[in-house]
Structure formats: structure tokens, C-alpha cells
Specification:
The protein is mostly beta strands. The protein has a single domain, classed as Phospholipase A1 (Outer membrane phospholipase (ompla), Chain C), CATH 2.40.230. The protein is built from 3 helices and 14 strands. Strands 3-4-5-6-7-8-9-10-11-12-13-14 form a 12-stranded antiparallel barrel. Strand 4 and strand 5 form a beta hairpin.
Length: 309
């Protein structure tokens, strides 16, 4: 039975600390028994008939979401934005991060995979309408994920921390109607994905905040669903069509639906292990996905360049 002091959404963090310790201990225990290391596992995979464990695997059984605004990835983008935030029509966004595989187990005969990964990312936004391209907001996330795939079905369970910070220029500009809020929290995420044919994918799930700062006071629930399309290589070359639609609704925002749509091309290797470059048109309508401004609404369109490692 959970006691009130243990399950305190504004207090200490025993749940998060214990979860991180369990992930690390599990990884350290299994690491010495790994049969293969790194990308060599994928190169040998078709020849292996027995279950194999892999240390530091490439990729992840649950493919990263294409259109989710805060999926851990490396990108740079330029947006034209319409919002209530003054003097911020041209916004540049950058993101650095990804999913680093720690330990993987797969069984070719059952077409089944399990993987533990470390996930971390930074998302920052800059106001290009200001002479110094002011930093507006920065969100930092990190955590651990457990992913599983069997044939066309994949799942991701993730526990992560997020902290959000206003840029110095925004804090110093007292004419702006902005007040800093201490937004930091830990959340649990659960997603299920189904690959329909070789091209289409559907997913759904949600998140629940298990601890947050006393100042944030965010309602804990969030649900997410979406669909993706990954085309075949064009004329035998390593270029393919790519599109994704992500829909998210937050309890804190009265379950209003935030819509993110991306469409473009991917050049290079395919997921989960190929390096690639994506050129995407990005459309967004809903509440801002930026931590310090998550209650504000905005519509935007822009161009994004993303790297896959």
C-alpha cells in the first residue's frame, strides 16, 4: 500500500530515484553476459538462430515518433509563428538528443526484441525578431526507457525528468508579460504502436506526472495518438517520402487537442540503425510545446532539418 509520504507529487522523489537505480543495476548485471556489442548485432542478426543479448545496441525496437514535438532527436528548424507572445513571429528551434541503447535481447525465431535505453534531449527556441536572436526557452529532458517489439507491435515505457527555463534576455526585458515558473517534473510514459504494412504506422498512449515542483501544479494526465507513413526507396535510391501526424491532449489544458504535422523526405539509411538526413515541412496548431509557455496557443509553419544517428 502506498503511504501519503511516499506518493507525494510535490515532495521528495523516492519513486524516481528507485526506478533509476533499478535500471542501472539491471544494466550492470546483464552487461557482462552480452554476446555481441554495438552495431555488429544488426549485421549478424540474419545469421543468428538462437536468442542473443547485445550491449550498446544501435537503434531502438520502438521507432522514434516522426511528428511529436519533443521526441528526442537532433534538428534545427525555422518557423513563422502566430501567437500572443509579442515581437516573436520568426522563431528558430534546435534540439540535441536521442535514444542511446544500453542493453538489448532479441530472439529471431520469435521475432521478438527487448531493449533498455538512456534517453536525453535539449529543446531550445530563439526569437529571430530580436537583434541578438534572444533565447526564449530551453527544456531539458532525460530518462530511461524499456522498449519491446514482436513482429508488427512495439511498445515503449519511459520514465523521464523535464525542467524548463526562460532565456536570460526574456527575464531582463521587463516590458514582456512573462513570469518565470519553476517547471520541473518526472513523468511516466506508455505508448503502443502497430505497423500496418511496410509503410503505415499507428500509435497511441499517454503520460502521467508522478512528481513535480510545488510551483508548477500541473494536472498530471496526457494522452497521445498519431499516424505515420514511411515510403519505399525512390527508384532504388536511398531517398524516401516521410510524413507524420501527432495529436496530444493535456488534462491541464482541458484536453484541448494540439496538432503537429510533418511531411518531407529522408535521405540515407532506414531506421532503426541507419544514419540519415530529413528535410521536413512542419505545421503546428495548439498550445505551445515550450515548457515556460505551455498554456499559450500558437499556430506555426516552417522548415526542419533533422539528423538520425
Amino acid at each position: 500500500m502506498l503511504t501519503r509520504s511516499w506518493w507525494n507529487p510535490y515532495g521528495n522523489r523516492p519513486f524516481v530515484k528507485k526506478t533509476v537505480i533499478v535500471f542501472l543495476l539491471a544494466f550492470l548485471c546483464f552487461l557482462p553476459f552480452s554476446s555481441v556489442y554495438g552495431k555488429a548485432a544488426e549485421e549478424l542478426r540474419s545469421t543468428l538462430t538462437h536468442p542473443v543479448s547485445v550491449a550498446f545496441p544501435a537503434g531502438t525496437p520502438f521507432f522514434p515518433l516522426i511528428a511529436a514535438p519533443k521526441e528526442a532527436r537532433t534538428f534545427i528548424s525555422q518557423h513563422k509563428m502566430d501567437s500572443d507572445f509579442p515581437n516573436a513571429t520568426n522563431v528558430a528551434s534546435v534540439g540535441y538528443g536521442g535514444h542511446f541503447g544500453l542493453y538489448k535481447f532479441f530472439n529471431n525465431q520469435r521475432q521478438e526484441e527487448w531493449q533498455i535505453s538512456f534517453t536525453a534531449a535539449l529543446f531550445a527556441q530563439f526569437n529571430r525578431d530580436q537583434p541578438s536572436d534572444d533565447l526564449v526557452n530551453a527544456d531539458y529532458t532525460f530518462g530511461f526507457s524499456l522498449t519491446h517489439r514482436q513482429e508488427a507491435v512495439s511498445v515503449r515505457f519511459r520514465i523521464y525528468h523535464q525542467s524548463s527555463h526562460l532565456g536570460d534576455e526574456v527575464l531582463l526585458n521587463h516590458s514582456l508579460p512573462v513570469e518565470r515558473v519553476d517547471i520541473n517534473y518526472e513523468a511516466l510514459e506508455a505508448l503502443v504502436s502497430y505497423d500496418w504494412s511496410q509503410s503505415w504506422r499507428f500509435y497511441g498512449g499517454g503520460e502521467y506526472i508522478v512528481r513535480q515542483s510545488e510551483e508548477a501544479k500541473i494536472e498530471p494526465g496526457m494522452i497521445r495518438t498519431g499516424t505515420e507513413y514511411r515510403g519505399s526507396d525512390l527508384r532504388g535510391r536511398s531517398v524516401r517520402f516521410l510524413a507524420g501526424l501527432d495529436l496530444a491532449a493535456h488534462q491541464e489544458l482541458n484536453w484541448g487537442v494540439d496538432k503537429s504535422f510533418k511531411i518531407g523526405f529522408e535521405m540515407g539509411g532506414r531506421e532503426p540503425v541507419g544514419r540519415n538526413l530529413r528535410v521536413m515541412l512542419v505545421l503546428y496548431d495548439g498550445h505551445m510545446p515550450y515548457g515556460q509557455f505551455f498554456t499559450e496557443k500558437a499556430t506555426s509553419y516552417g522548415l526542419e532539418l533533422a539528423l538520425g544517428f
